[in-house]
């Protein structure tokens, strides 16, 4: 078997034991890696109903055959567990040197179980695992933690760590790496925190087994240079992901004022052009020439790394149009180890709920200083307000009542990414059916909707496009484990990825093989959902109700007077279910599960919920 | 005729501005405007005229707002 090490490292924090376990070639070919490994292992090993913040949850770091190989944007890792935010399978990916080091240490995945008896740092070097007391860094932010680790182990290691947000079990705490990368929006940092696991440090010094080392080295290195050249020719890196902000503002897709408005005359103050002017440095992940992290000095003079999602949700969505203040909020989230996107939605929901009388409080849109204080309260779970904010929008809405759930910007508990779909039906569907909540990594079709169809359409072609992109973005890139940016932002040919996969593994997979694996993984996430929520209904795949509310329509601009129509959305949802082979609740049918070779998993899922 | 042009992302560095009013001789198409603002017509892009996507051969009229953007795909 080439391309995989064939090993998973299982670590028990309670017993302070570890063992190297092997997996079969059949397992490798069926699940490939990354999200595929995570979704299968957690399905087999977690009992439904366990406390995601208790010792029974398991935390996985999973890599794919392409991870750590010099080729375009392969320096990524998937982190996964049962999510404390959504209550079922959750994951995220982040750029990290762990990707290469864990594979060179001889493992394709790391599985952490149990709970340590004191703050702990796991140090993994090839076959050796050490449980290092981490009391000295417990309570520190991610920047100081990273510095401490680099001081102890040098920078020639892979690091995953958490900040105060993860330690204090904020439900949207992330895992951080390399002083700027973050992943695991679904609260993966809180899962580490619940295990008193402050950091994981990995050093690997072996070779990654490949079918054709020399061929892959030539192919991968050459392609890395080619992607770099395309980046330079197009000028993409001048603004990185933030170029899209002014486009969203033009097409009425920008989140403004808790998504109540879709554009704002001051949006230019926080756009990509302004960011490029303020830029002091640019950072990227391992094996990446695109370097999408643009840093500027925040209002306190600290270096803060920004991208579109955090400017959209901590900026325009809070009506804060001062880039240095947005950078400050972003810095605090990064240092506390909070997801900037959920944090932005939580704060905007809080301001909106106060404004609409659902709760009393003293936070208003545009108040950057108060927003900074609130982030601190949340990260420390300080007082009633801190606890409330730390639990995320869905639980806040349950607490507030008064129909506030209608404008809590979340799906299945996960806050919405920075695209306002008040009148973008296909993207609203993409958020609605994103299998673990409203994440943009699964599918994004706004340009398609505007360019290749009409904005007003709810036709089956939009459901087909969502599925096509889910297979690529939430599927292939998440199980071979590489960043989608060369393809998604620079148009790097998608056929390159099966080529890399085949060169490394010696297999002969087509794109269709990739899509079948993607469908299997998506079906598995739905089975996780069914096991935890046996009374699931199709309403779970609806986007936030505010997008259907005519009283929330824009009064001017390109979509004045327009909102989504619920009957039409429901028919679009049915198109998606029909094309996917899912039932009326959005659960894969028995026939679909059989087609995807998930008969055993179907038997297990059927113990908890009905399969049709 | 005069149209208002909004340029998005890295295209602003080729055009030299991000928003401006541009005077064109009638009749004028989107392609005429693209040449006028120094953006490579062969580069992938999405062009919106008054909020709706248009092609290079579509005609422009006085007072239009035209947005010229690279293809964004959601990061």
Structure description:
Chain A is of the alpha+beta class. Chain A has a domain of 197 residues: Aldehyde Ferredoxin Oxidoreductase,  A, domain 1, CATH 3.60.9.10. Chain A has 25 helices and 17 strands. In chain A, the strands form 5 sheets. A 6-stranded mixed β-sheet of chain A has the order 2-1-6-3-4-5. In chain A, strand 1 and strand 2 form a beta hairpin. In chain A, helix 2 runs parallel beside helix 22 and helix 19 packs across helix 23. The two termini of chain A are 37 Å apart. Chain B has 75 residues and is α+β, with helices and mostly antiparallel strands. Chain B has a single domain, classed as Roll (Ubiquitin-like (UB roll)), CATH 3.10.20. Chain B is globular and about 35 Å long. At the A-B interface, helix 8, helix 9, helix 18 and helix 20 of A face loops of B.
Number of domains of chain B: 1
Please name the CATH architecture of one domain in chain A: 4-Layer Sandwich
Major pleated sheet of chain A = 6 strands, mixed
Strand order of the largest sheet of chain B: 2-1-7-4-5
What is the topology?
The complex is a heterodimer of chains A (612) and B (75).
Chain A: E1 7-12, E2 17-22, H1 25-31, H2 35-45, E3 59-62, E4 76-82, E5 89-95, H3 98-104, E6 109-113, E7 120-125, E8 128-133, H4 142-153, E9 158-161, H5 164-167, E10 175-177, E11 181-183, H6 188-194, E12 197-203, H7 213-234, H8 236-239, H9 244-250, H10 272-278, E13 281-283, E14 293-297, E15 303-306, H11 308-314, H12 323-336, H13 340-355, H14 368-380, H15 383-390, H16 393-400, E16 410-411, E17 414-415, H17 425-433, H18 446-451, H19 460-481, H20 485-490, H21 496-505, H22 511-532, H23 566-580, H24 590-595, H25 599-605
Parallel strand pairs in A: 1-6, 7-12
Antiparallel strand pairs in A: 1-2, 3-4, 3-6, 4-5, 7-8, 9-12, 10-11, 13-14, 14-15, 16-17
Chain B: E1 2-7, H1 11-15, E2 19-23, E3 28-29, H2 30-36, E4 46-49, E5 52-54, E6 59-60, E7 65-69
């Amino acid at each position: 078997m080439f391309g995989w090490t064939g090993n998973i490292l299982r670590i028990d924090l309670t017993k302070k034991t570890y063992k190297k376990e092997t997996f079969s070639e059949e397992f490798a070919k069926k699940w490939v890696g990354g999200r595929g490994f995570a979704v299968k292992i957690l399905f087999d090993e977690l009992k439904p109903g366990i406390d995601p913040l208790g010792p029974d949850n398991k935390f996985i770091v999973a890599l794919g055959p392409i991870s750590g190989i010099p080729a375009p944007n392969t320096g990524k890792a998937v982190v996964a567990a049962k999510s404390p935010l959504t209550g079922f399978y959750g994951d995220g990916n982040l750029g990290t040197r762990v990707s290469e080091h864990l594979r060179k240490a001889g493992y394709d995945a790391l599985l952490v179980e149990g709970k340590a008896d004191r703050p702990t740092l796991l140090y993994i070097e090839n076959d050796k695992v050490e449980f290092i007391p981490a009391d000295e860094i417990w309570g520190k932010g991610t920047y100081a933690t990273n510095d401490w680790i680099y001081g102890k182990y040098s920078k020639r290691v892979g690091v995953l760590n958490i900040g105060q947000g993860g330690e204090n079990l904020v439900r949207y705490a992330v895992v951080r790496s390399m002083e700027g990368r973050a992943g695991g929006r679904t609260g993966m940092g809180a899962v580490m925190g619940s295990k008193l696991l402050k950091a994981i440090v990995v050093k690997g010094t072996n070779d990654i087994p490949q079918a054709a080392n020399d061929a892959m080295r030539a192919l991968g290195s050459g392609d890395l240079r080619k992607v770099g050249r395309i980046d330079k020719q197009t000028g993409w890196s001048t603004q990185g992901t933030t170029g899209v902000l002014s486009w969203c503002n033009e097409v009425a897709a920008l989140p403004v004022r808790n998504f109540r408005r879709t554009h704002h005359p001051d949006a230019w103050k926080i756009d990509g052009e302004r960011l490029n002017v303020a830029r002091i440095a640019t950072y990227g992940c391992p094996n990446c020439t695109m370097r999408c992290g643009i840093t500027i000095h925040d209002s306190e003079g600290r270096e803060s790394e920004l991208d579109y999602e955090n400017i959209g949700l901590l900026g325009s969505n809070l009506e804060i149009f001062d880039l240095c203040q947005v950078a400050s909020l972003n810095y605090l989230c990064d240092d506390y180890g909070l997801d900037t996107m959920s944090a932005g939605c939580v704060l905007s929901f809080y301001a909106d709920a106060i404004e609409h009388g659902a709760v009393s409080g003293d936070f208003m849109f545009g108040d950057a200083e108060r927003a900074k204080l609130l982030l601190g309260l949340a990260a420390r779970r300080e007082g009633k307000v801190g606890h409330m904010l730390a639990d995320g929008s869905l639980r806040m809405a349950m607490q507030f009542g008064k129909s506030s759930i209608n404008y809590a910007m979340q799906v299945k508990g996960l806050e919405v990414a920075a695209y306002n779909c008040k009148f973008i039906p296909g993207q609203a569907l993409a958020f609605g059916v994103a299998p673990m909540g409203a994440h943009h990594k699964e599918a994004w079709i706004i340009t398609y909707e505007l360019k290749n169809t009409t904005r007003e359409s709810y036709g089956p072609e939009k459901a087909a496009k969502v599925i096509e992109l889910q297979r690529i973005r939430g599927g292939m890139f998440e199980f071979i484990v590489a960043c989608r940016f060369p393809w998604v932002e620079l148009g790097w040919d998608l056929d390159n990825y099966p080529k890399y996969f085949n060169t490394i593994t010696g297999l002969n997979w087509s794109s269709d093989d990739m899509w079948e694996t993607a469908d299997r993984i998506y079906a598995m996430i739905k089975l996780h959902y069914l096991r935890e929520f046996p009374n699931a209904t199709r309403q779970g795949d609806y986007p936030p109700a505010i997008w259907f509310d005519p009283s929330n329509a824009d009064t001017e601009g390109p979509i004045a007077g327009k909102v989504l129509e619920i009957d039409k959305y429901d028919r679009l949802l049915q198109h998606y279910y029909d094309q996917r082979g899912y039932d009326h609740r959005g659960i894969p049918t028995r026939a679909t599960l059989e087609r995807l070779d998930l008969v055993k998993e179907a038997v297990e899922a059927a113990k908890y919920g009905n399969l049709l | 005729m005069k149209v208002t042009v909004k340029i998005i992302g890295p295209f602003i560095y080729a055009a030299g501005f991000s928003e401006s009013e541009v005077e064109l001789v009638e009749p004028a198409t989107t392609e005429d405007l693209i040449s006028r603002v120094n953006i490579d017509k062969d580069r992938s892009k999405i062009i919106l005229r008054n909020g709706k996507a248009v092609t290079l051969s579509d005609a422009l009229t006085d007072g239009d707002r035209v947005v010229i953007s690279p293809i964004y795909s959601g990061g």
